[in-house]
Design brief:
Blueprint (H helix, E strand, L loop, with lengths): L19 E12 L2 E13 L4 E5 L6 H8 L7 E6 L2 E2 L7 E4 L11 H5 L1 H5 L5 H13 L15 H13 L5 E5 L7 H18 L2 E6 L2 H7 L2 E5 L6 E6 L14 H11 L5
Parallel strand pairs: 3-8, 3-9, 6-7, 7-8
Antiparallel strand pairs: 1-2, 1-4, 4-5, 9-10
Helix pairs in contact: 4-5, 7-8
This protein binds adenosine-5'-triphosphate and magnesium ion.
């Protein structure tokens, strides 16, 4: 901010800071074959409890943005804040889900969900109770003692969701979490994610290549341009929830997907 500091600070409650604020962020990767501008001057905000999806062509910097928000990568320019705190590294307040859930094959489903608690030395009876409750939420109560290789891809991704929620993060970062699944499992998990989100109202930054998935889940869809990625549209999805499979054929839903698709027709 420029200009002199205000002489008098106003009393009363200041507005709560955004859950995620990305402020004029750019990323340049240095490689042996030169510099790659992956993200260029991106500014975006996710409010507390908001579900925001990033849609953009392959290579436009979506995963790069998510890694920045997860504290796994530092920006070349600009900065990021979570709940008003500058991001300097991975945080317990942030849950991350990737395309593959990377479960540990030698541990049971329950022990995989407990992993985030274990890494902070908190395998308490409450943590175990929470993990079991989350397995119930994702429909895997009967599989707590199975091993990952005994589960289907969709079930493994559900374990990944439960593990992400185990430490009750404020902000969820999800990078194409359903991309490796078949169409029907993907649809079912999308609706399940909506149900979990409506229950918990966590802030979510979601990445997908699927326009219908983006519209179904989101409060807002941010469209990114080709590399170096910039946000070229901030589109509010004004459809009542819960959205269902019937929603997919409603005129307002179809109009929203057609509007967004225009960005990707060359
Ligand atoms: N570690 C890295 N080193 C060098 N370049 C990288 C690195 N990671 C990503 N890039 C480059 O940065 C650009 C953006 O990559 P990123 O993975 O963020 O794209 P994306 O939008 O997630 O793509 P996709 O939709 O295919 O997953 C790409 O051109 C990629 O080649
Ligand atoms: Mg990616």
């Amino acid at each position: 901010m420029s200009g002199p500091a205000p002489a008098v600070l106003h009393t009363g409650h200041a507005a709560a800071p955004a859950m995620l604020h990305v402020d004029h962020v750019s990323v340049t990767y240095k490689t042996r074959r030169g510099a790659i501008d992956a993200v260029s001057d991106v500014t975006l905000t996710i409010a507390d409890g908001e579900f925001v999806t990033i849609l953009g062509p392959s290579g436009c910097g979506k995963s790069t943005l998510l890694k920045l928000a997860a504290g796994l990568l530092q920006p070349s320019r600009g900065h990021l804040d979570v709940a008003g705190q500058r991001i300097s590294g991975p945080s317990r307040d942030i849950g991350v889900a990737f395309q593959k859930p990377t479960l540990l094959p030698w541990r049971t489903v329950l022990d995989n969900v407990l992993l985030p608690s274990e890494t902070v030395g908190l395998i308490t009876p409450e943590a175990i109770e929470r993990a079991r409750a989350l397995l119930k939420v994702v429909g895997l109560a009967d599989f707590a003692d199975n091993y990952p290789n005994e589960l289907s891809g969709g079930m493994q991704q559900r374990v990944g969701l439960a593990r992400m929620l185990q430490r009750d993060p404020k902000l969820l970062l999800m990078d194409e979490p359903f991309a490796a699944l078949d169409a029907m499992t993907r649809e079912a998990l999308t609706l399940e994610l909506q149900r979990i989100w409506m229950r918990d109202r966590k802030s979510v930054l979601f990445i997908t290549h699927s326009i219908p998935e983006a519209v179904l889940l989101s409060d807002r869809v941010l469209v990114m341009s080709a590399r170096p990625g910039r946000v070229v549209e901030d589109f509010a999805v004004d459809l009542p929830r819960p959205r269902t499979l019937e929603t997919l054929t409603e005129p307002a839903f179809v109009a929203a997907t057609q509007h967004l698709r225009r960005h990707f027709i060359s």
